[in-house]
């Protein structure tokens, strides 16, 4: 069901899945381009969770998806404020599940129970977007460097890979790391060498040059999240 | 076709580069296992556009714990699989 929450004078859309009277999970997808590549996966995961009896919220962040707000007015701290508002209006939210850059926002509601798939630092997202910009500059015959672009970005904002990012967003992204917490389940893919509390079969679809869907992975994510929520 | 020279540490590097290409391009393990030094990348894989290359470099940095400078990235690097693996090995050795 499509519902809305009001934030900063605008209606922001939010998808709600599942029964109305159970624990409610807030789902935070990856950020920027990565979010577009896994939209299908995330929605199918939420549907699978509903079938397992878990209700969830999948809100638009201000400036993203169907939001009427422009992205250049957004920042990580603004998104966190929006998530608090969303939770107040549409919650209560008891658990938060994030993927990739979504983990940079999952501390917004305090030290809740949190599930994370392959969390990423803000600096890595920024670096990839800077590289895309450098490549497109090069195709246009302009030689640019990360340092020079970042200097401009910090002072006046910048467009990177189709995203208009404010100086505030740039500063926050550059230093953002997933926050610590007492109740975090960290999940990674089976062939990821980094430490994890759980392993998932699947592939990092957010990296795909051509967006793809993986129904088995959506189901596996939902099963892992549902089992974790039931403790 | 030439064989990739491998030994302990380098096997791991090569595998990481294969896996990054698999994940970015949506290939199967069998397909990337078939890559050899001469497998063309940039010229023959249309999915490998500038955004995909940007993601690929950041993933290589992340998974190999290396730092790739802007001026180290040129067309030659993505000419074939061998060049990319050699580059990754050189970065780790540096």
UniProtKB/TrEMBL annotation, chain A:
This is Alpha/beta hydrolase. It comes from the Bacteria.
UniProtKB/TrEMBL annotation, chain B:
This is Carrier domain-containing protein. Gene3D superfamilies: ACP-like. InterPro entries: ACP-like_sf, PP-bd_ACP. Transmembrane segments: none annotated. It comes from the Bacteria. Signal peptide: none annotated. Residues 11-92 form the Carrier domain. Coiled coil: none annotated.
């Amino acid at each position: 069901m499509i519902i809305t929450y009001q934030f900063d004078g605008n209606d922001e859309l939010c998808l709600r899945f599942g029964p109305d009277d159970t624990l409610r999970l807030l789902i935070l997808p990856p950020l920027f381009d990565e979010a577009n590549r896994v939209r299908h996966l995330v929605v199918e995961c939420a549907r699978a969770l509903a079938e397992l009896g878990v209700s969830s919220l999948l809100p638009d962040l201000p400036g993203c998806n169907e939001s009427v707000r422009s992205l250049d007015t957004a920042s990580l701290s603004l998104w966190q404020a929006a998530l608090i508002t969303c939770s107040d209006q549409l919650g209560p939210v008891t658990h938060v599940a994030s993927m990739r850059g979504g983990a940079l926002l999952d501390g917004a509601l305090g030290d809740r129970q949190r599930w994370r798939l392959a969390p990423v630092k803000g600096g890595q997202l920024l670096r990839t977007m800077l590289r895309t910009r450098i490549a497109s500059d090069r195709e246009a015959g302009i030689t640019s460097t990360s340092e020079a672009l970042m200097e401009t970005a910090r002072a006046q904002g910048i467009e990177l890979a189709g995203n208009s990012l404010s100086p505030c967003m740039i500063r926050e992204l550059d230093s953002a790391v997933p926050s610590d917490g007492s109740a975090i389940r960290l999940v990674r893919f089976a062939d990821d060498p980094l430490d994890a509390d759980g392993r998932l079969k699947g592939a990092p679809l957010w990296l795909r040059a051509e967006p793809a869907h993986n129904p088995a992975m959506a189901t596996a994510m939902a099963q892992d999240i549902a089992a974790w929520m039931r403790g | 076709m030439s064989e990739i020279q491998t030994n302990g540490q380098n096997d791991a590097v090569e595998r990481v580069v294969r896996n990054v290409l698999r994940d970015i391009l949506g290939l199967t393990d069998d397909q990337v296992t078939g890559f050899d030094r001469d497998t063309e990348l940039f010229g023959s894989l249309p999915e490998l556009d500038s955004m995909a290359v940007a993601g690929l470099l950041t993933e290589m940095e992340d998974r190999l714990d290396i730092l790739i400078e802007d001026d180290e990235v040129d067309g030659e690097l993505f000419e074939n699989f061998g060049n990319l693996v050699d580059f990754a090995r050189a970065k780790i050795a540096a």
